[in-house]
Each structure stands twice: as structure tokens, then as C-alpha cells.
UniProtKB/TrEMBL annotation:
<dbReference type="Pfam" id="PF01593">
    <property type="entry name" value="Amino_oxidase"/>
</dbReference>
<dbReference type="InterPro" id="IPR002937">
    <property type="entry name" value="Amino_oxidase"/>
</dbReference>
<feature type="domain" description="Amine oxidase">
    <location>
        <begin position="16"/>
        <end position="274"/>
    </location>
</feature>
<protein>
    <recommendedName>
        <fullName>Amine oxidase domain-containing protein</fullName>
    </recommendedName>
</protein>
<dbReference type="InterPro" id="IPR036188">
    <property type="entry name" value="FAD/NAD-bd_sf"/>
</dbReference>
């Protein structure tokens, strides 16, 4: 017998694991436990703080949502108005020394004339070809050509997507796209070029909110704090070292064994296969591809420059910098960096030169967070990456050579992006059912490996829906029908819904019931 026995064990306290735990706590039916190797909840949505007091998320996270249940749970965890800042996305692409409003393919009116001609030629060719096409695009590259044409493909889409994914566009499928990539409207683009106009905001994150304090990670710590302490095991005592799927026992690093009836796994599915020691699943999971993400942070003394203004995040398709995206992290919250009266010494100037004095001086301060991808198809000089990124910031006129750098940050996340390769669906359609046959629901950004439902709201709901599937057989819409959930307001579940118990044994089922008049 195991030391601890529960109906449902949840591995991982990132957004997916916390979604599962919140739902289990809400329906108050099956017994459950959530474990995580980290002392703090958050997973890939965590936040680090430098010794100087600058905050950096694990990449560019903002809160926008397709689900009312997700909103309810965040509002419960951080209920006060001053817990949040609300922003309108101000986003640009850096190209040939100027800022082109995002999305690039809708704003070629901002390009030099010769590039405008190349892009419009390509768009017209693509529109004409699309009229007679009888087959779907075979890969992401063909989708780009059919949708945007050769001009936009060569100038922006191919180089930018290679920098993001660290994989050529010819090796990626295109079923994942949905709301992720804006398809240009040829008439609108042409009209804007003639009238010299700019297209407005596009996409689900055109407006977003961000926590006032503690970064994105603070949200998930607050959500975890709404769960009963006795049902959480974080840190070394929550680190999984072995999963015996046949005996249904998980062994933790401190030697504790946990018996379960159903397992919701949110760790990377390739890591799960290794901890199970299942050769067939290990071999199968090797067919899944991912890229690593380097997050670089630069803290700078001085007022935020006029040229930076209230920009949110910025895209960099050119090869004059290693990063594909920069986030002006200090714009999200005044608490993402030290207050102006904090005294910090200058480490060095942006051009590498040493300051005249090592004396600590007051601020104000502002900060930039950069993301760089790495894979077997896109190597990175890790030892010099921070220096190369700072030079890239100078090359793109984000900072000046004489700017005083007071803090730096560099962390590599091995599993950064789950790549939608051509082979992905073939692997998942075999791997996930094999796990489910063993009573393991593997869900989450890397648990179920579907990038198109890998945002924080999606990830959270993958956990919620896994619980409902286990307890009541409900269909997991987010996992199985990404386009459906991404094109509607999902209001069926609410945290205030009443539940009633169907059974009272270890396999108890608590099904949410919509009260009369509830939206």
C-alpha cells in the first residue's frame, strides 16, 4: 500500500495543474492531492526577481481570456481593483530602422515603396492562386505563401517565424494557426497603402490585464493560496521521481509514495514517459519536437525614453539582434522594477565600458525583457548571449551605447515552445490515448503539446476540463476543439455554480448544476 491514497493525483502546479485542483476543490467530490517540485506554484508562468529588484516573467505573458471560469478564479485570487493594471496592446515590428505597427502583414503601408510593391504583388498573386486552389496547404510555409504572398513571406513571415520557433516554416504544420496569425485583407492593405493609413489592433490580446505586483507568477501563487494547504505538496517533498502506471503509485523524492485512481499529469509528456520507464512511450514521445527559450532581462537607469514610450511588446525579424521579441516590462507595472529612490551602482554602460565611479545612485529605472529561441536547428552562443542581446538593443535603437545598465538577468528554459511539427498530430493521436488507457490524463502546454491551446487561460481550462471528463465524462473542448473555444465566449462554467453529489464513494462524481437564471 502507498503512504497516501487519493482518487485523483495532480502532478504540477502551473496553470494546468492549478486549474485541475481548483475544479476538484470546487466540486468537492473525489479526494485529491497536487504535487510540484518547485516551492512556489506557477510552472512556466512564474516570475523571477533579480537581486536588484527587477522582475522578469518566463517570457511574454499577459492575461486575456476566452473563459469566464478562468476569469472567476483569477478574480477570486486577486479581487481588488488595484491588484491589476489594464492595458491596450501597443505593438510594433522593427524593420529597416522603423517601427511598423503589428500585425506587419496588415500595415505594409508603412514600408519603403519598393517593399510595398513587392508585398502587394505577392498578396495579389496569393489571392488569385487561392481562388483556384483545390487542396489545403501542406505546411506552414505554404500557408504563408497562399495567405500573404512571396513579398510578406520573405520580408517578415519566414525570418520572424524561424527566430520564434527555431525551426524552418517548411517543417511546421498549419492546423495550429487559428487566431494566432493574422491573415491579411488584400483590399484593406491596398486601400491603406494608397491612403497611407495604418490598420488597427488585431487579435485576442488587443487589450489585456497584468498584475500590479509580483508579476505573472504572483497570480498563480495567489490562486494556489485559495486551495487547502493539506492538499498541496510543493518543493522536494512534491518532486516526482517515478510513476508506476500499472500499480498506480507515484514515488516522490523524499520517498513518500502516493496511490491514485486517476492521474492528471501536467509535466512535459516526454519527461512523464521517462519517469514511467515505458520504452514504447519514450520512443513515441521522441517524435515530439520543442525549442528552448532564453529569457534575458536588462535593467536601465534613467527615465523611460520618448522613443520607447508606452510600447508593450515588439517583434524583430531581422538578423541585427538575436531576440525575436522584446517586452518593455516596466510599462506593465511600476512595481516590476525598483522604485526611483533605491540606490544601485552602474554595472557597465551598454557599449561595455566601465562607469567612472562604482557609487550607487538613485533611479528612476526601466526594464526590457528579451526572448531568444534555441533548438537543434538553430544553435545559440549561450556564453555570449547576454552581451549579444545588449548589442542587439543598441543596433535596433532600443537603448543607447552610453545607457547605464544596473541589472541583468539570463535564464534558459529547456522546454520553451511545443513545436507544431508535421509529425506532431500523428504522435499525439497515439500517445495521449495510450496514456489515458492507463488512467493518465496528460494535459498542459507540454503535457498535451498543443501550442494553439497553450496560453494561460487555455492551460488552466485543460486542467478544469480534464477533471470534468474524469468525474462526469464531459467532453474536453479545449484539448479537442481549439478553434471552437477560441472563437466564442465560453461561459458554461462559473465558479459560483452550485454542485451536487452523485455518489459518495472514492469514485464520487460531483457535477456542476446550472442554477435557474444563471448565465
Amino acid at each position: 500500500m502507498a503512504d497516501i491514497n487519493v482518487d485523483i493525483l495532480v502532478i504540477g502546479a502551473g496553470p494546468t495543474g492549478l486549474g485541475a485542483a481548483k475544479r476538484l476543490n470546487h466540486i468537492n467530490g473525489p479526494s485529491w492531492l497536487i504535487v510540484d517540485a518547485n516551492e512556489k506554484a506557477g510552472g512556466l508562468a512564474s516570475t523571477d526577481v533579480t537581486p536588484e529588484g527587477f522582475l522578469y516573467d518566463v517570457g511574454g505573458h499577459v492575461i486575456f481570456s476566452h473563459y469566464k471560469y478562468f476569469d472567476d478564479c483569477l478574480d477570486e485570487a486577486l479581487p481588488k481593483e488595484d491588484d491589476w493594471y489594464h492595458h491596450q496592446r501597443i505593438s510594433y515590428v522593427r524593420y529597416k530602422g522603423q517601427w511598423v505597427p503589428y500585425p506587419f502583414q496588415n500595415n505594409i503601408s508603412m514600408l519603403p515603396k519598393e517593399d510595398q510593391v513587392k508585398c502587394i504583388d505577392g498578396l495579389i498573386d496569393a489571392a488569385m492562386a487561392a481562388r483556384v486552389a483545390t487542396t489545403k496547404p501542406k505546411d506552414f510555409d505554404e500557408w504563408i505563401l497562399r495567405t500573404c504572398g512571396e513579398g510578406v513571406a520573405d520580408i517578415f513571415m519566414r525570418p520572424y517565424n524561424y527566430k520564434v520557433w527555431a525551426v524552418p516554416t517548411t517543417k511546421m504544420q498549419c492546423q495550429w494557426l487559428g487566431e494566432r496569425v493574422a491573415a491579411p485583407d488584400v483590399k484593406l492593405v491596398t486601400r491603406n497603402v494608397i491612403l497611407n493609413k495604418v490598420a488597427g489592433n488585431w487579435g485576442p490580446n488587443a487589450t489585456f490585464r497584468f498584475p500590479a505586483r509580483d508579476g505573472t507568477g504572483g497570480i498563480w501563487i495567489a490562486v494556489a493560496n485559495t486551495l487547502p494547504e493539506e492538499k498541496k505538496r510543493f518543493g522536494e517533498k512534491g518532486e516526482v521521481v517515478k510513476v508506476d502506471a500499472h500499480k498506480k503509485i507515484v514515488t516522490l523524492k523524499d520517498g513518500t509514495t502516493v496511490g491514485y485512481d486517476k492521474l492528471i499529469n501536467t509535466m512535459a509528456v516526454d519527461h512523464l514517459a521517462e519517469k514511467m520507464g515505458d520504452r514504447e512511450l519514450i520512443t513515441l514521445s521522441k517524435g515530439l519536437y520543442y525549442s528552448s527559450t532564453h529569457v534575458i532581462g536588462v535593467g536601465i537607469r534613467g527615465e523611460r525614453p520618448e522613443r520607447i514610450g508606452d510600447k508593450c511588446w515588439l517583434y524583430f525579424p531581422e538578423n541585427n539582434c538575436p531576440f525575436y521579441r522584446a517586452t518593455i516590462f516596466s510599462n506593465y507595472s511600476p512595481y516590476n522594477q525598483p522604485q526611483a529612490d533605491v540606490k544601485l551602482p552602474t554595472l557597465y554602460h551598454a557599449d561595455g565600458s566601465k562607469p567612472a565611479s562604482g557609487e550607487a545612485k538613485e533611479g528612476p529605472y526601466w526594464s526590457i525583457m528579451l526572448e531568444v529561441s534555441q533548438s537543434t536547428m538553430k544553435p545559440v552562443d549561450e556564453a555570449n548571449l547576454l552581451k549579444d542581446c545588449i548589442q542587439g538593443l543598441i543596433n535596433t535603437e532600443m537603448i543607447k551605447p552610453e545607457d547605464e545598465i544596473v541589472s541583468t538577468y539570463h535564464r534558459k528554459f529547456d522546454h520553451g515552445y511545443p513545436t507544431p511539427t508535421l509529425e506532431r498530430e500523428g504522435v499525439l493521436k497515439e500517445l495521449l490515448p495510450k496514456l489515458q488507457a492507463l488512467d493518465i490524463w496528460s494535459r498542459g502546454r507540454f503535457g498535451s503539446w498543443r501550442y494553439e491551446v497553450g496560453n494561460q487561460d487555455h492551460s488552466f481550462m485543460l486542467g478544469v476540463e480534464a477533471v470534468d471528463n474524469i468525474v462526469s465524462g464531459a467532453v474536453e473542448l479545449t484539448l479537442n476543439y481549439p478553434d471552437f473555444v477560441n472563437t466564442r465566449q465560453n461561459t458554461e462554467r462559473r465558479l459560483a455554480q452550485k454542485v451536487y453529489s452523485v455518489a459518495g464513494s472514492s469514485g464520487s462524481s460531483d457535477i456542476p448544476v446550472r442554477s435557474s437564471g444563471q448565465a
